[in-house]
Amino acid sequence: MATTPKRPKLIIPKNKSEWVWDGIGFPSYIGSILLLIINWDSLPDQVPAHYNAIGEVTRWGAKWELLILPSIGVFILVLMQLFEKYPEMHNYPQRLNATNAEQFYQNSRKMINQIKNICLILFAYILYASVSIALD
């Protein structure tokens, strides 16, 4: 059984692009939740619950189903924040060593940051679209 070499733990500050992505992803996500809270009493009992590939509503469901996206968003947010905080946990090629670890960590952390924020933006958009369609 092969043992994995100990990876260096580095404290690398976030770069500008990570701050920009967080500056777009977090407010979008929080804004969509606020939109849902503000409009909760105005929502009808049946809201869009599923869309097809061209964006048409294919299933209507109870308005409580709108809470699924924010819940998944919280799960993704917490999990991805942990992955961002500890880049030494990620999977790397064998050529990782003490001299190139910072570059590998930054690259991997940047990818995780973008995936996290793209998911938050998409969930925010879907929630916004569902609330908008339900209120129209």
Share in helix: 55-70%
For the largest sheet, list the strands in their spatial order: 1-2
Number of helices: 3
Sketch the topology as an H/E string, one letter per element. HEEHH
- Radius of gyration (CA) equals 19 Å
- Give the overall pLDDT as a whole number: 90
Strand content: 5-15%
The largest β sheet comes out as: 2 strands, antiparallel
Overall 3D form: elongated
Number of strands: 2
Number of domains: 1
Q: What structural category characterises the helix and strand content? A: mainly alpha
Structure description:
By secondary structure, this protein is mainly alpha-helical. It contains 3 helices and 2 strands, in the order H-E-E-H-H. The protein has helices at 16-39, 68-85, 101-135, and strands spanning 46-51, 57-62. The protein has a two-stranded antiparallel sheet. A hairpin with a 5-residue loop joins strand 1 (46-51) and strand 2. Helix 2 (68-85) packs antiparallel against helix 3 (101-135). The longest helix is centred in the C-terminal third of the chain and has 35 residues, at 101-135. The N and C termini lie far apart (61 Å). The mean pLDDT is 90.
Q: Can you summarize this structure?
A:
The protein has 136 residues and is mainly alpha-helical. The chain has helices spanning 16-39, 68-85, 101-135; strands spanning 46-51, 57-62. It has one domain (16-90, 98-135).
